[in-house]
Amino acid sequence: METFNSPNHMRKILNTKEKCREYLEELRWHGEPVCPHCGSISKYHYKLTQKGTFKGLYKCRDCRERFTVTIGTMFEGSHIPLYDWFYAISVFLSHKKGISSAQLARDINVTQKTAWFMLQRIRKNMKDDDATFDDMTQMDETYMGGKTSAKHQGRRKSKASKTGKKNMGRSVATKAPIFGMISDGKVYAQVVPDAQAETLLPIINEQVKNGSTVITDGLSSYNGLSENYTHKVILHSKQIYCVDGFHTNSIEGFWSHIKRGVLGIYHMVSKKHLPKYCKEFVFRYNTRKLTDVERICQFLQGFTERMYYGELLMKPEWIWESK
Known about the structure:
The protein has helices spanning 7-13, 17-29, 82-94, 101-108, 112-124, 159-163, 197-207, 249-266, 274-286, 292-301, 309-312, 316-322, and strands at 46-50, 53-59, 66-67, 136-144, 176-183, 186-191, 213-216, 230-233. With 323 residues, the protein is α/β, with parallel strands linked by helices. It has a domain at 136-148 and 160-270: 2-Layer Sandwich (Nucleotidyltransferase, domain 5), CATH 3.30.420. α3 (82-94) crosses α10 (292-301) and α4 (101-108) crosses α5.
């Protein structure tokens, strides 16, 4: 199989639909085509030609259904050629803060709506890291959204703006809270409805092994952690940021990265789609020790599934069908 030393080298070699299709077959099948209909694996599946030319269409020896390497994947049903898909994936995964749909649309000459749908398909198929956290785990919460002071007076819904009290930018009426943990170079981030103990503690108990050392700030929601963990509290309210080598600087550095990415590249992210963007930054962070080509190949090799536009927009008929 062809090896590449950079995403640019990869794009130069895989510059046609056939070369991209053949490379994808080798990555996913390793010489033995897999029928997506019945799961049959065999190098003896029938190769169907069109006007004497083979274009990647197979017929299963067992269930007799036709298939290609893109059936059942994020590429299924797309009119965008594979080399444009490969370009979008390589740029999206190799750029530290991603690429905007407006920029991608200009690069591959499609509409912004099409480019946004492509990027959302890629985000959907980024796999979560299932590893549990142990040893020393830093955890923190952050809030993403526009400033209340920047909104029109009629759209300010924050209770603090009505009472005159400061909320330190933590109003869930105007911002979306995100809870995160980091341990041994692996990060976890999840959009949550609020930062109350009833919301955060079940997530921590599920993801972090009992007896581990957890490091948090002085938020009262973390007060019950000492029952199952060694709890180290860093009182940021008193300008204390490190105690005996314990700190939350790593998780706060990740928050800074994701916020700068959203602000500088995407400019605005709605609450509805924020979990997908969190997933994007988590994936790139957790694979940061891989080379860009290794990250791209790992993504292409993994299981992917098709996303429909109605599903992306969370239309009522799609939500009903998915239940």
